[in-house]
Amino acid sequence: MITIKNRREFEKMAFAGETVGILLSKVREAAKPGVSLIELDELAAEIIESRDCKPSFLGYHGYPAHICTSPNDVIVHGIPSDYRLREGDILSIDAGAIYEGYHGDAALTFPIGEVSREVRVLLETTEAALWAGIEQVRPGGRLGDIGHAVETEARKHGLGVVREYVGHGIGRQMHEDPQVPNYGKPGTGMKLRKGMAICIEPMFNLGSGDTKVDTDGWTVRTADGSLSAHFEHTIALTDDGVRVLTEVPDLGYDVQNG
Ligand code: MF3
Ligand code: CO
Predict the structure, then answer these.
(1) Burial class (CB in 10 A: 0-12, 13-18, 19+), 217
(2) Mutate to test the pocket of ligand 1, among 24, 76, 170 (most ligand atoms within 8 A of CB)
(3) Residue 258 belongs to a domain
(4) Which of 229, 40, 223 is CA-nearest to residue 123?
(5) CA 105, 180, 156, 228 torsion: positive or negative?
(6) Which of 103, 144, 177, 257 lies at a CB distance of 3.0 to 4.6 Å from 184, suitable for a disulfide?
(7) CB 104 within 8 A of CB 96
(8) Could you tell me the residue range of the domain that residue 200 belongs to?
(9) pLDDT tens across 73-84, in order?
């Protein structure tokens, strides 16, 4: 179901979204060589609680953690484990929070220390594709415009586009209609309108876009073992314009203490 949100509801989503942004900043900051993925999950849990939010991932279809931690060839839905980060890894963090019943959802991917130029291009291109998609968000714009803009960025650099997993509407539920694919034809698909909120979430691979799922039923990997990146924002079509609700604050300062 597509839901239309009013100003009061968007304010709640903005608080949830800001919480997710802060969480991603702090987890990225903490993700150093030697740190385990479970330690990052514990940090995420503390941040969600400190903002009077609830975790949205924990218990979602039985998901066992507060965030998804997806290293290297893991595309999405990696379960935090005792794996300790190593210099040269890349790591995707996907996080969600609920404030007074309203959701925020976002993801980013970053390197642990130095990575090759090819890997930097993967990360930069996937993030650029997210922003190219966001630029297409406007009342009357279509889902195909977004998908096409996202896909075009991948094409420029010969990256594989993951097609099995897509973005989504968001509100009182983490996953609402419509589905927001990372591919499409301009001028086709559903029209966006004020009051909607969507998550755009490109997933690009250095190899093909094909995926496989581990026996844990969650961990989604590239079929060919190539590295994968994932970026996501929650975007609202408010009366005052398009607002990205999950922007990651620059951690040059302490968010909580000003
Ligand atoms: N946040 C993810 C998405 O972007 C979904 C997380 S699935 C969960 O849609 F099970 F981990 F919650
Ligand atoms: Co999402």
Answers:
(1) exposed
(2) 76
(3) no
(4) 229
(5) positive
(6) 144
(7) yes
(8) 7-249
(9) 999 999 999 999
